[in-house]
Each structure stands twice: as structure tokens, then as C-alpha cells.
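sry for the spam today, last one i promise. C-alpha cells for design, 56 residues
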């Protein structure tokens, strides 16, 4: 019940951002491949940051 007031960790927030970017990249892949690739690259950067936080 009190879990709704819990703040999300930085890793959780970055993971949500990663998921959002992946979804956008997928949707753009049928319309604009260049933008899709850009979103995918951005998602990869977020994933690197997540892995860095998990390591250290």
C-alpha cells in the first residue's frame, strides 16, 4: 500500500527511459530508418549508463 510513495532509483528511471527509446525506435523503423537508428543509438547509451551503475 505504501509502495506508491516510494521513489524510483536512478537505475529504474534509466531502464524506463531505455524501454521508451526502444519502443520509439521500433515504431520509427517502418517510417524513418535514420531517426530509428538515432533513437537506437540513444537507447544504447542509456544501457551503457545502466550497466555502469550496476557494476559500480
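last one done:
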Amino acid at each position: 500500500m505504501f509502495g506508491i510513495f516510494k521513489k524510483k532509483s536512478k537505475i529504474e528511471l534509466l531502464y524506463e527511459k531505455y524501454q521508451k527509446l526502444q519502443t520509439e525506435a521500433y515504431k520509427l523503423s517502418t517510417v524513418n530508418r535514420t531517426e530509428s537508428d538515432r533513437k537506437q543509438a540513444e537507447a544504447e547509451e542509456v544501457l551503457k549508463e545502466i550497466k555502469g551503475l550496476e557494476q559500480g
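Helices lie at 10-28, 33-55. ok im logging off now
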